[in-house]
Write a structure and sequence with these properties.
The chain contains 3 helices and 7 strands. It has helices at about 5-15, 20-50, 110-115, and strands at about 55-65, 70-80, 85-90, 95-100, 105-110, 125-130, 135-144.
Length: about 140
């Protein structure tokens, strides 16, 4: 069998060398498939949510949520120390409303004074857009 494209040639011959070549070939192919899926997801999300025309409508507040300030810790690899070191990330207070427009719901962050002013069941004016492919609701602005 003749393969002119070098990466495909290497992959095909990796599978002929059992067991190390086959294991490496499977890992390479799995990595390539995962990277392709990630690229498709990122590009799809970008195309679904960017440059959409916004509409103004009256939405209904169906839920409220307050997330107090907190910190999370992640480990970041330091190549000089050749080890992972902890990194604290601070998350400030977040006041969120679940807003329903045209039968679709989404959570959006609002200012604290507006959060305190409204209750579940109230109606509010919002600027929103609907995703091109997913039909997902994207709230761009909330007016009080």
């Amino acid at each position: 069998m003749s393969f002119d494209f070098f990466p495909i040639y290497v992959l095909v011959h990796m599978f002929e060398d059992w067991p190390v070549g086959t294991i490496i070939g499977v890992v390479v192919v799995a990595t390539m498939v995962c990277m392709l899926a990630l690229i498709v997801y990122v590009v799809g999300s970008f195309l679904d949510s960017c440059f959409l025309k916004t509409k103004r409508a009256v939405g209904k507040i169906v839920g409220k949520d307050f997330v107090p300030a907190h910190s999370t810790m992640i480990m970041i690899f330091n190549p000089i120390l050749k080890m992972s070191v902890p990194q604290l990330i601070h998350h400030s207070d977040d006041w969120r409303l679940c807003i329903e427009v045209d039968g679709k719901q989404t959570w959006t962050s609002v200012l604290s004074n507006y959060y305190e002013k409204v209750t579940s069941g109230d109606e509010t004016t919002v600027d929103y857009a609907t995703g091109r492919f997913s039909g997902r609701l994207y709230v761009k602005a909330v007016y009080g």
